[in-house]
Amino acid sequence: MRWFELPLFDLLHAAHEVHRAHWDPNEVQLSELLNIKSGGCPEDCKYCPQSSRYDDKGARTPLMALEEVRARAVEAKEGGAQRFCMGAAYRSPSDDDLDAIIEMVKAVKDEGLETCLTLGMLTGEQAAKLQAAGLDYYNHNIDTAPEFYGHIITTRQFEDRLETLAHVRESGMKVCSGGIIGMGESRTQRAGMLVALATLPEPPESVPINQLVQVPGTPLYGAERLDTFEMVRTIAVARILMPRARVRLSAGRTSMSDELQAMCLYAGANSIFYGERLLTTPNPAHAKDQALFERLGLRAST
User: Fold this and answer.
1) Are 297 and 267 in contact (CB under 8 A)?
2) Catalytic site residue from 83, 85, 190, 264
3) What CATH number does the domain containing 69 carry?
4) What is the overall mean pLDDT for the chain?
5) Domain count, the chain
6) What is the Cα Rg of the chain in Å?
7) Marked catalytic residue, from 83, 176, 233, 264
8) pLDDT (mean) for 162-179
9) Whether 85 is catalytic
10) Catalytic annotation on 264?
11) Is the separation of the CB atoms in 14 and 286 below 8 Å?
């Protein structure tokens, strides 16, 4: 918590020094995210428009066809992405759907991209099957601090999140896990989320930090807006606590100025989601990100 309480410029200085010690400060990884199945999720995550408990009727789509996924992966690579992430709205995937998704993983790997999936909770056997198929990363965000988790989700427990992360780690895959800020949590709880990630038996290799995107029809629509510098502070503390992780500036960038994003990149973010859409929310266009990188003298990592 003491890091969050530092004067902002002192925190930025400390975080940037850690960043420079472990990463090229002028390189940013580009990851593209494709929603391969929308809506119909039985969970009650208060931030999520894909929950069947809210008005997600117009957002429901079946599992995408293999060749469409392959085509989108090719487009992502041609656009400069290094990692291709696929997300599907499940509490946990069925074995039949998992078999179809495994073919998608293989197709994306064939195109020379790193692969990442987010499908909800996994059993140990399912994690092992994904690892055998060549999946590089599995994303399973803890969302928020353990003590605030029940205010956001009631259909599963924080420990369920940790169990899936343990299955992923035991399988040999890399872990992608972060959270969302701006859901009504306190600064202490934002710190608690980062401590929970940093004190896992092995910290995640990839840490997405999302700012809540308020979607009409979800319980968190209309929530009090977070002070913008809290995103900078959260990125900076994540960098200090997890120096070897890719810290990804994720959802919410469309509401951030170029100057705010630049501060986050200076504070230690070295990955972004690239492309005009995330799972269900908008994202800056390729050209806008490329223009920002040019102005800042940044380049995509290879």
Assistant:
1) no
2) 85
3) 3.20.20.70
4) 90
5) 1
6) 18
7) 176
8) 97
9) yes
10) no
11) no
Q: Which two tokens stand for residue 179?
A: 């959270």
User: Which residue, chain included where needed, has tokens 């960038």?
Assistant: 253
Q: How confident is the model at residue 78 (pLDDT cuts 50, 70, 90)?
A: confident
The one catalytic residue in 72, 83, 156, 248 is 248
Q: Based on the residue annotation, tell me whether 41 is a catalytic residue of this protein.
A: yes
Tokens of 71: 């085509």
Tokens of 276: 């005009």
Which tokens go with 269? 């973010």
Task: Indicate whether 69 belongs to any domain.
Answer: yes
pTM of the predicted structure, to 2 decimals: 0.91
| Domain limits for position 222 | 2-292
Does the pLDDT of residue 39 top 90, yes or no? no
**Whole-angstrom distance, CA of residue 153 vs CA of residue 43:** 8
Cross-strand bridge partners of residue 85: 33, 116
pLDDT of residue 278: 52
Which member of 72, 83, 116, 264 is catalytic? 116
Instruction: Give the whole-number percent of the chain exceeding pLDDT 90.
Output: 67
Q: What is the pLDDT of residue 50?
A: 83
Residue 211: what residue type?
Answer: Q
What CA–CA distance (Å, rounded) separates 239 from 237?
5
Are residues 293 and 284 in contact, defined by beta-carbon separation less than 8 angstroms?
Answer: no
Distance CA 255, CA 39 (A): 24
Q: What is the pLDDT of residue 217?
A: 84
Residue with tokens 């223009």: 291
Residue 302 in domain: no
Angle between helices 258-267 and 286-296 in degrees, nearest 10? 60
Helix (H, G, I), strand (E, B) or coil at 31: strand
